[in-house]
Design a protein that fits this description.
By secondary structure, the protein is α+β, with helices and mostly antiparallel strands. It contains 5 helices and 10 strands, in the order H-H-H-E-E-E-H-H-E-E-E-E-E-E-E. The chain has one domain (5-262). It has helices spanning 5-17, 36-43, 57-71, 125-155, 161-169, and strands at 74-84, 87-98, 104-112, 172-175, 183-189, 197-203, 209-218, 221-231, 237-246, 251-262. Strand 4 (172-175) and strand 5 (183-189) form a beta hairpin. It is globular.
Amino acid sequence: MKINLNVKRRALCSINMSGRHLRGFAALLVATTLFAGVETRFVAAGTQPGALQGMDPAKVAAAIKANAEALKTFVWQQRMQLQLKGETKKTTLTQMNYDVNGTLQKTQLSEQPPPDQPQQSSGGRRRGRLKEKIVEKKTGEFKEMMQGIAALMKSYTEIPHDQLQAALKQASFKQGQDDMAGAIQIQMNNLNQQGDSMTIWIDKTAMLFRRVAIATTYEQNPVTATANYSMLPSGQVYMAQATLNYPKKEVVVQIDNLNYQRSQ
C-alpha cells in the first residue's frame, strides 16, 4: 500500500502542534508526587545523630511528619504545564485536597487549550483513517516515554530502606550555599544508576525540606527533576514548584502548587 507523504507529514505536524493529542499524557501528573516519599523514607533510613551536622534526625523526622499531617487540612490548586520544543502545549489547573480518609483528591478546573471536538476529514475516509493511525502511534510512543520517565523519577522516592541507608553513609554533607544558605546539603550518588545523584537540602531552623534535586538518565539520555519548597504564613512547608526536564526530546514539565487555604 502506498502512503501519501503529504498525509503523513500533516499527521506528524498534528502531533507536534495540537494540544488535543496531548490529552493522553495525564501520566505526567505522576510528577506531582515525585518527591512525597523522599521525606519519609529519608528520615526513616536510620541516619546517625551528628550526620546532619548537629541536627537530630529524630527531630527532623518528627517535624516532617507533623508538617505532612498539617498540610492535609488545606485545599490548594495545582497548575501543570507541558512544554515541547520550547512551546507550551498544554496547561491544566486542578484543585487538590485530602478527604477524611487521608486520600488525595483531584478535581480538574480548567484545561488550555480545551479538548478539540472531532473534526471531519476533508481528504476522504481512507486518508483520514491513515492520519489518525499515524497520530495515534506517535502519541502512544510519546506517552510511553513520559510514563517511563515518571516511573524512573518516582523510583528515587521509593528506594529500599537498606539501599538508602547505605547511600546516606556514603553521602556528602555540607552547608548550603547562596539561596540555600541556612540549609544542610546532603548529596547521594549512584543510587539506582552509576553516575546518578539525589541532593536534598534541609533547613536547619525549621528542620524541613527546602529543595530536592535528582539527576539520572533515561535510555542513556540525561533527565533531571527539581522540587523547591516554600513556607505558608501558618508555618507549613509545601512543594511550591517542581520541574522535570528531558533535553533529548526537548520536553519540560513544570508544576506549581498555589492558593493554599484551610479546608472548611
